Amino acid sequence: MRRFTRIALYAVYAAGCLSLAPAAVAADAWPGRPIRLVVPFAPGGGVDNVARALAARLTTGLGQSVVVENRIGAGGMIGTDYVAKADPDGYTLLMGTQTSLAVAPILTPSVPIDPRKAFAGAGLVASSPLLLVSNPGFAPRDVQQLIALAKQKPGEVNYGSGGIGTTPHMAGELLSLSAGIRMTHVAYKGEQPALTDVAGNQIPLMFSNLVAALPLVQSGKLRALAISTLQRSPALPDVPTVAESGVKGFDAATWFGVVAPKATPRAVVQRLGREIDAALKDPALRRTLESQGLAVQWKDPGEFDAYIAGEYEKWQRVIREAKISTQ
């Protein structure tokens, strides 16, 4: 009887080893052919630039071509959905962002993706703070004065953005909710037209991507009120953060990271994470990213999974409480 029990145990153990074998073989053999890194936005934009710089360095590290493929539409959801449904073999990846992984999935119910369930994070690559800027003629000169004016005149202070669901729009709504004020959002077809109108005093203020607003601040056409992240920016070390200005815990940024379909073998995801980490230690790549106004911000696969979940839940709350809709 004991002999049969031992045989049964050996059989179970062998079956378990066999069930793990395909994943182990796949991980050992990966990558055996070129890899696609899907960018869900147009060529030439900020996300595309980050993806192409990273892909060139990963090509060297992995010994296989990493080819950037643009699949645009629906606020980034066309490309995001494509990767979510791709074979989980490590050969189709997504350059994800705060918009495509934490905002657009909530604002686009026609493409039902929960990024926490659809993707495995390979690594956070970089982030860019936003800059709260105003027309120099706008009376408030800091965040506390802005909050005081908005409380005095609910709904009368307008702020711009490049469109509904963009990071600058979401930052404006987060500020309103966090500070207990009500401002009116004015959506433009792109960030540059909104910045032009702030400089021209058509609207008083907006959150803007740092790299876009910095030249206008340096020329005196805009006033910098605050940085959106928890740390100050080396580009403007004298400008306080929103959190330092009295809105405790305020944190909003544009971020970029690589994800794979959720069922991708963990060993493949971990290998990819190590290669991304190595790439980000390359001084040439760091200089390229920093020249675009980005800060290298590495998080490993497990940390990035947690970060995506936290961002999704934060912006889901903002969208619900601010009643934001694209309809």
Automatic annotation (TrEMBL):
Coiled coil: none annotated. Residues 1-26 form the signal peptide. InterPro entries: BUG (IPR005064), Bug_dom1 (IPR042100). It holds the Pfam family TctC. Keywords: Signal. SUPFAM superfamilies: Periplasmic binding protein-like II. Belongs to the UPF0065 (bug) family. This is Tripartite tricarboxylate transporter substrate binding protein. It comes from Pigmentiphaga soli.
